[in-house]
Amino acid sequence: MNEVHVDAVGTLLMGLDPKKTPYLQFAHDRGLGDIAPEKIEVVDLTTGNTMSADELEAARRHEPLMPLCRNRDEGYYKRFRADGSAVPWCIADINEQREKDGLEPLFVDDVLVDSQAVAAG
Predict the structure, then answer these.
(1) What is the per-residue burial (b if ≥16 Cβ within 10 Å, else e) of 20-38?
(2) What is the pLDDT of residue 86?
(3) Does the pLDDT value for residue 65 go beyond 60?
């Protein structure tokens, strides 16, 4: 069993695109495993049968899992785009939103990172 294959298929089943997932691209580029689900043999553990591409697609969530960013009014921000790619983290943007939500900003290595400081460069 290859851990990169497991993560690629799990990512697909969660409704995300493993080919657009940075850490999986990193692993694939270093020869640690394939991230194209159509190139990975997936076995249904309940039947022991190899799943076809159509069966795998039928098992896939069509709305990505893992909301990650809290929003006081709406619950969560969408953490992933409609195409399944992750919205990149940017601490300055997170702090700007936290301030709008009335929350304390986050620090990185005891340094406050805000959008004005990032924009100023």
Answers:
(1) bbeebeebbeeeebbbebe
(2) 59
(3) yes
